[in-house]
Design brief:
The structure holds 2 protein chains of 2 kinds. By secondary structure, chain A is mainly β. Chain A has no helices and 11 strands. In chain A, strands 2, 4, 5, 9, 10 and 11 form a 6-stranded mixed sheet that branches. Chain A has a 5-stranded antiparallel sheet with strand order 1-3-8-7-6, with no helix packed on it. Chain B is mainly β. In chain B, strand 9 and strand 10 form a beta hairpin. Classes of the chains: A mainly beta, B mainly beta. At the A-B interface, strand 5 and strand 10 of A face strand 4, strand 5, strand 9 and strand 10 of B.
Chain lengths: 111, 112
């Protein structure tokens, strides 16, 4: 079966750093994506890992360990606008590379 | 930069009615995906198209059908609507099957 786990909720302080973890067990794997989603809006692409290691994009970094089925998203210098849900999604590597989403982590950034 | 366009943005229907949702992918993107997101849930894959052919099918009810047209836009047709069909329906497009998927703003369907 397909299983992608993330913490349900997290709280962090403005200006701080927060790490959101994601563990996965899927029948196929062709990359792991992180999306940001504000309530009622479309998921917005943040980062992508297909090889092990760290990918850095400005205030956002994402790490992948394929052998451990583990990824994390690191958000630095948190801003109030970073309050949103963060979705971990595995691309399943099948004919169409559809995305299988985790349940998402709702991040609340406090002043 | 151009994004994925979905219409309508909001739709209210009665039970047993039909609905048609439209998706216009980013220019040059030939792959389209449809996802359904219920309240408080993660997006669930419904169906996808590559070069106007259905390429994969997920948890899509038999009451739903979809197609991709020659201009690469896609339509999701939903018949005999049920209360449980109330959800956000997202379309995503990618340059090809190996590329990042970019999501449209979604259509919020409410079935009364």
């Amino acid at each position: 079966g397909q299983n992608i786990d993330q913490p349900t909720e997290m709280t962090a302080t403005e200006g701080a750093i927060v790490q959101i973890n994601c563990t996965y067990q899927t029948s196929g794997f062709n990359g792991l994506f992180w999306y940001q989603q504000h309530a009622g809006e479309a998921p917005t692409f943040l980062s992508y890992n297909v090889l092990d290691g760290l990918e850095e994009k400005g205030r956002f970094s994402s790490f992948l360990s394929r052998s451990k089925g583990y990824s994390y998203l690191l958000l630095k210098e948190l801003q109030m606008k970073d309050s949103a849900s963060y979705l971990c999604a595995v691309r399943d590597g099948g004919a169409t590379n559809k995305l299988i989403f985790g349940t998402g982590t709702l991040l609340a950034v406090q002043p | 930069a151009a994004g994925v366009i979905q219409s309508p943005r909001h739709l209210i229907k009665e039970k047993r009615e039909t609905a048609t949702l439209k998706c216009y992918p980013i220019p040059r993107h030939d792959t389209v995906y449809w996802y359904q997101q219920g309240p408080g849930q993660d997006p669930q894959f419904l169906i996808s198209f590559y070069e106007k052919m259905q390429s994969d099918k997920g948890s899509i009810p038999d009451r739903f059908s979809a197609q991709q047209f020659s201009d690469y836009h896609s339509e999701l047709n939903m018949s005999s609507l049920e209360l449980g069909d109330s959800a956000l329906y997202f379309c995503a497009s990618s340059l090809d099957v190996a590329d990042t998927q970019y999501f449209g703003p979604g259509t919020r369907l409410t079935v009364l």
